Amino acid sequence: MNEQTMRDYYAQRAEKLEQIYTLPERQQDLQEIAERVNALLRNQQVLELACGTGFWTEKYAAQAASVHATDINQNMLDLAQKKPYPPGKVSFSVADIHHLPSAQPCQYSACFAGFLWSHTKREQQTELLQGFSRAAGAGSLLIMIDNNDVEGSSLPVARTDVEGNTYQLRTQEDGSRVEIVKNFPSDSALRKKLGGLVRDIRIFRNQYYWLLSCVLK
């Protein structure tokens, strides 16, 4: 599995990507996570990375002071821009999470990344965090949300590589299958990986999702 495979998979899934959020058993957990994201990002100048279809952008935009949402796929941004947002508050651009521009002074106060960490290989996570700090600015709040591995609900892990990354098999629109990185870190693994690059780590989990907040160094 390479970055292009991941990009292509999500590009062709764009129109159906939000179906996962309609599962009845996940509604209470989603609402709880959305409320926490809103509280954390209230009055913040937010840089959102890998915004996808804008599902989460729409959830918190009214509470934020401003939002600049980015994704590597233009067709994702096309869908995201169709959602209703407060006038003049949300902007969009194409951006590669591995080649983010450095923030201007006071440009952002927070960085939001939804369902990105699980798709990042363990050996690339430190570099990704360093990119977050450059892009949002040291001292910015970092919020990440992602999936828990829930037996009977999550897709099974197909294999584990020598670095400890786990993979799932996903079905594409043409019926073919593709292997996608999907890691499910424990709280201790998150704290160990982030510890030297951030401060004030706080982690919340419900049944289906986790939320991590911290301050970028």
TrEMBL record:
GO biological process: methylation
The keyword Transferase is assigned to this record: yes
Keywords for this protein: Methyltransferase, Transferase
Pfam family, one: Methyltransf_25
All residue ranges annotated as the Methyltransferase domain in the record: 46-135
Cross-referenced InterPro entries: Methyltransf_25 (IPR041698), SAM-dependent_MTases_sf (IPR029063)
GO MF, any single term: methyltransferase activity
Domain of life: Bacteria
Gene3D superfamilies assigned to the protein according to its UniProt record, in alphabetical order: Vaccinia Virus protein VP39
Protein name according to UniProt: Methyltransferase domain-containing protein
Organism per entry: Undibacterium oligocarboniphilum
